[in-house]
Amino acid sequence: MAPQGGHRTVAVILAGGSGQRMGLSTPKQLLKIAGKTILEHTLGVFEESPDIDEIFVLMNPGFLNDAADCVKKAGCTKVTAVLPGGTSRNATTQLALDALADHPAETTNVLFHDAVRPLLSQRIIRDCVTALREHRAVDVAIPSADTIIQVDEDVIVDVPRRANLRRGQTPQGFRLATIRDAYEKAWRDENFEATDDCSVVLRYLPGTPIYVVPGDEHNMKVTEPVDMFVADKLFQLASSDAPDLTEDEYAGALAGKTMVVFGASQGIGAALADLAQRFGARVFGYSRGATRTHAERPDDVAAALAQAYSATGRIDFVVNTAGVLRIGRLDAIDPEAIEEALRVNYLAPIHIARAAFPYLAKTGGHLLLYTSSSYTRGRAEYSLYSSAKAATVNLTQALADEWSADGVRINCINPERTSTPMRTQAFGQEPPHTLLSADQVARTSLNVLLSGLTGQVIDVRREDPLTGGRTS
Length: 472
Prior knowledge:
Helices cover 39% and strands 20% of the residues. By secondary structure, it is of the alpha/beta class. It folds into two domains: 218 residues, Alpha-Beta Complex (Spore Coat Polysaccharide Biosynthesis Protein SpsA, Chain A); 220 residues, 3-Layer(aba) Sandwich (Rossmann fold). Strands 5-4-1-6-10-7-11 form a seven-stranded mixed β-sheet, sandwiched between helices. A six-stranded parallel β-sheet has the order 13-12-14-15-16-19, sandwiched between helices. Strand 17, helix 14 and strand 18 form a beta-alpha-beta unit. It is elongated and about 80 Å long.
């Protein structure tokens, strides 16, 4: 995209944090969420934006090589500099301004963004760049849901009107000439200290209006340990709530691709196999009943994969929906049934992962496993099933790390109660409106397979937890 009106926009990613608030020796921007470092996620947002022409990364000086690795993994072609940050936020901004010395001050826009806000939306970037056509300084903020109090020695001295208060986020955007002028004046003040760049403009260029762009609750800053868990869940919810592709987009993404599905004779496996085949993928379905393929037997798995590879010369997606659900107290279950449950529900994913990896490494492919809502807390009467599903989640997360350098993705679908023959056999007939359909789960599964996610447990629900509405 050509720069708007001759202006170029440079995104400056501020990644100088040390991770001390987390109690870590590694900067928090290098921690992994949703299968990638926080910095990779943040870089990817700006790389994808048609409004961004160039990206600078200002990194903790001791981790410049790590930042360069993140740039490479994220495939960022817009990054033109990875530079050491300063000892403070203000010093880091000044280093960025120094690096921008050869950029024309009146036709360059700069967006300063916290590296640890990886959930930034394209809408906010677009709104900031649009606002800078008319304004010289732009902030991003959201209303405060909490009452803010002002204290002096732990005693309330004022309660400002909440309607006038906002919670500041990033990016903060400026014409390069404006932020450069503000910092030149600020450094002449021996008492200069500021926590963000808009406050520098507000204090040292008081006649310059700072326009406020609406932010987003999801544009959170990962600062405390609990933020890691919240951000991770937001990535999961965003992926499961992603809009479906068009018919042509599905067909384009699946053309010439090979998918192998274990457990393909019924339920979710059958629905996914039919869906992928309808959009042009070569699908090879295996099951106990239809092909006498036992997913818990390594030789059967190896033979199935070899057959698909021999026929098409590639394997892009491997899916395992095979499972067994035995209801009953553990002390009353037959030992043979225990062994079968463990082999099918846990050893099968392991055997499939081991056998599939060489094929997927050649194509940068994707392994998809399935868990159950019972993985978060073991359920009485099906302890074997719920514990195996918890193990599958841990397997997914561990392999995502192991395979990241090889370009192989692995994710795990966590559907709510779903109408499948396995569930009906275990629980009998249930009211249809209380269950997901296999087609719903299959559609989300296909979206995940075509995404860049890895290491995620993606919830599929009848109602969208972000809006309270029913999912399609």
